[in-house]
Amino acid sequence: MLRTTLAMVALCAGNIWATSADADVIDYAKLSVGQSLNTDVEGFALDDGLSYGAGVGKAIGPVRIELGVDRLSGEANLFGPTLQADALDWHANAYLDFELGERASVFAGAGLDYIDGEASVFGNSIDASGDGWNWAVGGAYRISDNIIAEAQFRRIDADLSTDFGDVGLQTDQISVSLRLAL
Q1: Which residues contact 63 (CB under 8 A, 6 or more apart)?
Q2: Predicted local distance difference test score (pLDDT) of residue 3
Q3: Could you tell me which residues come within 8 angstroms of residue 81 by beta carbon, excluding any fewer than 6 positions away?
Q4: pTM of the complete model
Q5: Residue 122 has what pLDDT?
């Protein structure tokens, strides 16, 4: 069900992308770096890890549609051996921007995710993948006509399938980004 919804969101985003050029329509690329925080996999906590990503978006007035991918990571010390977890988070988000003046704004948004992850421990690898959703809040500052800096908090919830059964994932992500007008 969620995969079908994600496909529909991607199709709608593609249709929005096809809108004719307009002064209020801005295509952009986005680069992010940050940290995965408070990661919990079925009650098992991971230490904070590095996060980085890229995306493309279209701003139509105060509404933004964005497609992106982020790498999330974390690790846990298991009384000697270390569990290392990495995941790719493919997401489609919609945001609403609220202007706070000529250059500053705040925003809120939500979207759908597909997580493809792997954990390594004791020399063994465990694959996990599944659907989820996220919500985000943040602030942005227009550096120039073509560059916007932003800071964002994002909460991700997903249900992942592994060879050992299904697990729930919840993680927070804080990031700083640059949006570059295309």
Answers
A1: 94, 95, 96, 97
A2: 57
A3: 121, 122
A4: 0.84
A5: 82
